[in-house]
Structures are given as C-alpha cells and as structure tokens.
C-alpha cells in the first residue's frame, strides 16, 4: 500500500514538473520584458528569395565575384541570381539580389543581418558591403472602412488662399499613391521641370515621363491610389489642410508610390524613392509607415539609419514618420518572444522602424495621436522616441480619430498614427521658414518654431508617453 502511495506521489510530481515546463516554454522563458537573444521572432516579415546589398564602394567585378563565392559557400545557386538596381539611376549604392533561398543569406544568423565580416559573418570583408533582408513595410489603418475607398463617390471642396511671393516647400509622400481626382488641383503638386510627356527620359534619370513623381511598385508613372482605404490620398489631404491655415509657405506635393493595393511596400523600393526625393529637391519626406522588430539599433538597420539620419540630413531633408499602431501579427510574435501585453505599445521595448531611429536630435520627427492625458491605447508611445502628439478630433469605440478634410456631406473619420504624422508634416511644412532646411538638419530647428503652436500636457509628460508632453491641435 505504501509503495502504491509512493508511486502515486511520484506521478503527481512528474505531472507538476511537466506543467511548469510547458508554461515556461509557452511564455518564452523568464525573460521579463526583453526578448531572448536567439528568439526567432526578432526578424520582421521580408520578401522571400531576396536580399538588399548596401555597397560601401562602387562594386566592381572582383567585389561581385567575392560576394558570389561567399553565397555559393552558403548554399546559394549563384547561377540563378538576378540583380535589380533602383530604376532612377540613383547615386545610392544599393542593389536587390534575387535567387532561390537568397533571403537565408541575410537572416541565417543575427550577426549576418547586415554584417559583412567579423564573428559569424558572411566572410565578404567589411570594406565591401552590408546585407539585409528586403523587409516588408506596411501602412495598415487601425480599422478598415466598411466600404472601399471610392474616388468617384467623394466630392472635395478645396480652396486655395493667395500665397504670392511665399516660399515653396516640397513634401514627398512615400505611400500608396494619390486619388486621380485630386491631381486636378495641379497647383498643389510638384511637377518635374525637366520632363515632358513624350515617352522619353528628358531629364536623364532613367525614368520616362516622371512628370509628377514615380510608381516604384510597378516601375511606371501611374500614381493612382489603389489601396482599399485610400491611405496615401488621406495623407495628402491632411497635409494640404495645414497649408490652408497658414500663409507662410506654398505647397508642392511630390507623389512617390511605394506601397501596393494591400498597403505593403518593401525596403528596397522605399530607399529608391528616398533617393529620388532627395535628387529632386524635396524638403520633407512623409513616412506614414513602418515595421516592427525586436532588434534595437542592430546591424540590420545600421545602413538604413545612416541613409536617413546622415544622407538625408546632409541634404537638408526632414523625415517625419509614424510612431506605429497596434498590429496583430507583430504583437503576437512579440508576446511569444517575452514582451508582456502591457508593453506592446512601448517603443522602448517593442521597436518600430524607422521611428526607433529617432530619439536623438537628428532629422527624424515621430508623431502619434493623443487626448489631453494619454496616447491612443492603440498607438505606440515613448518619452524618448515620440516627439509630438496630435490631439484627436473625437473618440469612438476606443479609437482616437481625425476628421478627414474637404469631405462634403457626412463627416468621415480615420484613426492611426499615419494621419497624426501627416498633420505634423503639414504643420511644419506650412509654418517653418525655408531657411530651417539647412544641413546638417536637426529636428530642434523645427520643434522650437512658434508657428507650430505646440502645447504642453502635464499628464502626457507624467505618463512618460510623449517627450515633454508636447502636442498640437488638429484644425
């Protein structure tokens, strides 16, 4: 009888140990709020069979040969490699390489995601190139509209105040495109002065008929917004609206389509669009998009960081980007990697790029949506990374929303840090003097401008969600 009791006790102990082990595995281990180093959830989504190569010098035959030899030793069939360069004859030394399993070359080890030599490297040599997956970069709204965006059913009432003699600020929108109906207001849009509609490359930038911008998704000049929610079009409307309230500057929108009908873009096309914007004299880039990762300033992002905070800043270009919204798949991955549910919106723990390339006094301004005391519970916050909140027009169903400008009839509302970003972009571009866009550009040149009419919220500051509790009011 005693032996049976002892056996039963042992069985109970084994069951308890097994349950504790299962709980430990499902929670990602005792990691607190930080992901484990070897977490498979650190890398965000990326294009399969592709790798973006950042050359540190113009590549010659010897460099290409060394890279291919290294790839072959990693199991890549180099005979199947195809190479894509930015269509716009860019001076940016980047290429997109395609081949079966090519993506494994960049993500097989954490160190490889951007490193070209050193421990765990691809063995190519640090003086040669950096490698990164072709990350997928999304512009999803916080909530999809019940009906798809229909330009034919939307009537706009846009007025243009006289701005004779005002400085012109060029704002490049890298997004899903623009409603054809809005392109009728041509005075609002940048027009390439060196190009004519003749199926030729008049300005010798390798793009034919890039009159108002370029479609980097389909590699043509069709800028039509084909996203379900009209994301890029709404971004443009919020920016235009800010120029209606201030007489300081005139606006030219440069439309660069980087995201497809599913509101998805990728890092390679976005970098090509950034180069186009810089070469065509953009003053501001609006980046209402991003991607989550559990790396913090690790090698996969070092070159992207350099392109924005060094390359664009050196050319006097301000980069305004979104703090990011709640997204189901990245949130699920983060929780599996050990980040608790209460910290999913905290950019200090759950990193969203390019927002998390900001923080210091560089050329990146990060925006989110707020009420009088807190950031929207569906959007990201950080007293270090988030520079400015935008006060929402109304709250509905747990979402902080903005009223879409220039819509006749029933008011329409949208929510998301994308639109807060556009409002900040428009406010800065409309009010800040043109001489603020000097190199090396710093965000403090703009955030101290009286015309922005920045308010301060003690509660926002106390809650440590926005730097200094600073916000502006949407008009």
UniProtKB/TrEMBL annotation:
Assigned keywords, A-Z: Hydrolase, Protease, Serine protease
Keyword Protease set for record: yes
A Gene Ontology term for the protein's cellular component: extracellular space
Top-rank lineage group of the source organism: Bacteria
UniProt similarity note: Belongs to the peptidase S8 family.
Gene3D superfamilies hit by this protein: Peptidase S8/S53 domain
GO terms assigned for molecular function: serine-type endopeptidase activity
Stretches assigned to coiled coil: none
Active site (catalytic residues): 175, 231, 418
Protein's UniProt name: Subtilase family protein
GO BP of this protein: proteolysis
Domain Peptidase S8/S53 per the UniProt entry, residue ranges: 168-438
